Amino acid sequence: MGLRNEPASFDTVAARHAQDDVRQLNVMVSSAKRVSNHANSIGAVLLALALTACGAAPPAAPTPEQAALLRPADPRLSELYVTSCKACHTIAESGAPMVHDAAAWGPRWKQGLPVLVDHSIQGFNAMPAGGQCATCTPADLEALIRFMSDHEESAK
To answer: Do residues 62 and 100 touch, judged by C-beta distance below 8 A?
Structure first.
């Protein structure tokens, strides 16, 4: 037949192995690039999460049982709160922001205290004018809003 099975020369074998090594290296480099891209994506997500975590998370809203026990420290304000505000601001189903619920009060607080006091005086959505407190002055309503929104410290 004329074909001979001659052993491949050392150079031929070495060249084939070098080509195989180059192919494997290319596969590994490609894989490393994909891993690097994923690592960069994961790193960006982790960085974003870490930066978000730097701000203090708002405290968890009190349970209805806990909310029912909360009262202003001032005895007069406490009485006003119990006879007016508490009826709605301790019952989630009322639609009123729960007392000391930072998530519920946050967007309202951003409107500004004067707006919240005005809403209390004039009535707003389901809240009746005066917030069911016939004897409350605007200063009382402000103090009650500060208490319910857990912003009493900002009054000092």
So the answer is: yes
| 105-115 per-position pLDDT tens digit | 999 999 999 99
Give the separation between CA 132 and CA 43, rounded to whole angstroms.
53
Q: Is 130 within 8 Å of 105 (Cβ atoms)?
A: no
Q: Which residues of 83-103 are buried (b: 16+ CB within 10 A; e: fewer)?
A: ebbbebbbeeeeebbbbbbbe
Crossing angle (nearest 10°) for helices 102-110 and 113-122: 100
pLDDT in tens, 91-104: 988 999 999 999 99
Instruction: Evaluate the CA torsion angle 124, 129, 132, 135 in order and state its sign.
Output: positive
Name the H helices within the chain: 10-54, 64-69, 75-80, 86-89, 102-110, 113-122, 138-148
The pLDDT value recorded for residue 37 is 54
Tokens representing residue 115 in the block: 């707006």
**Helix orientation angle between 113-122 and 138-148, rounded to the nearest 10 degrees:** 120
**Amino acid letter, 127:** M
What are the two backbone dihedrals, phi and then psi, of residue 124, each rounded to the nearest 5 degrees?
-155, 130
